[in-house]
């Protein structure tokens, strides 16, 4: 059965998509997973699109999916035009990079971008999360954090000594120990920002794994878009206030005290881009970052932090930021601007989404919903309180965070997956634990992440219940019920202010007449069309949906 399917898809890709030979390998891999009945497996977006158009043609022309090899060539242009927008372009990944000549040039370039290439390996993300939430156990002699996730087991420690840093005297060694002895108290979201900033700057400039880059406190302050008291001709800010500099210097010093070790022997790390794996044997503790040429700032006789230095990732981290092991995604630079205490939840959610989008890139299943509660939910990601006594306040705070991320362009749009969630909440006494914590949200990434400019191109084959469709069943012949449901969903018009206004004008109706037909007040309809109602009542949405899609 599988060989027959493979032969069919080989013929299809060669004749319909001769300019995209990678499709056959991608689709063959996906078909293998689907035929193995891996229900939760998400195939690539192009294969989903192919399923939809083939099924639509079969329905429209009374054809059989099972015999598609007999008729698919007759509809070659229609199939190609439908699937093309969903084909992942792989050439961009290997595009040559134009190296910047200095930190200043790199930073000025980044300040004109919304997103920057950043680490996205599991180890990178979990370390950053450990730092931001300060998950180091201080009950041990050396503050230690255990990282255990899927195939990864690692240990991170905060150490005051640094055998890699060359000290010229015992006095210098003592000064360094004094500087780093309180590092554990500086593990927070601002330190996680410095982790990101150093990694981003190094990835922009490194030409080999052992390359050091110069790092200055002002570099971090500029990328956080804090205003200095002086400005250079190129816009670079200088002469920052004492507290702003102190905060950065202290965190940079804290970052250099972190050491990591991979626990499992012969771990196999999958190289997502190349489809193979490398084995990394068990290693001793390695510094997270290596530094040299350090300038320590003092106030009186007390060391404050690192003013500037040469820096690079340690051996383990460098494996994930450079070369064949490299795993990178795109971090919204607005994340660095958020206040490290007042907006720490914004930072954490933005970082998590950056990591998730890199994982979802292959199959382009960006619209798969996120759980709100539970061990893997977004509240846990942000470390947000889940005390039922403050349910309304937590829900409001959660929605405000997502609204802010949307306003700042970190996400394009968000909505609850459950259509009648607000109505359920209104009807239940214990709604927080019984309903809201179990709900899900759908978060649409910005165009810079998906490469798709029109939301309809995402929603077309990934509508509300489409992720639950069993694609292996479709490959074995499809069921009429699943096909009818998926195609009906595809063809439904979405309820948006623009669609409602366009439909009303196409029908030649006034606000008053249309509102009467829908069953809502004319003032509500008028305000909705003008985008003044951000979250309409579920009941009104259902009425507008029924009116919009009425034949």
Structure description:
This protein is an alpha+beta fold and 551 residues long. It has 26 helices and 16 strands. It has a four-stranded antiparallel sheet, covered by helices on one side. Strands 4-12-11 form a three-stranded antiparallel sheet. A three-stranded antiparallel sheet has the order 14-16-15, with helices on one face. Helix 3 runs antiparallel to helix 5. The longest helix is centred in the middle third of the chain and has 17 residues, at 189-205. Residues 90-101, 269-277, 460-470 and 478-490 have low confidence and may be disordered.
Walk across the major sheet and give the strand order: 2-3-7-10
* Subunit arrangement of the protein: single chain
Taking Cα atoms only, what radius of gyration do you get, to the nearest Å?
Answer: 27 Å
Query: Helicity, in percent?
Result: 40-55%
Q: Main beta sheet, described?
A: 4 strands, antiparallel
- Strand content is 5-15%
| Low-confidence regions | 90-101, 269-277, 460-470, 478-490
Arithmetic mean pLDDT: 80
End-to-end separation? 41 Å
Query: What is the 3D form?
Result: globular
Give the strand tally: 16
- Helix/strand/pairing class, anyone? alpha+beta
Number of helices: 26
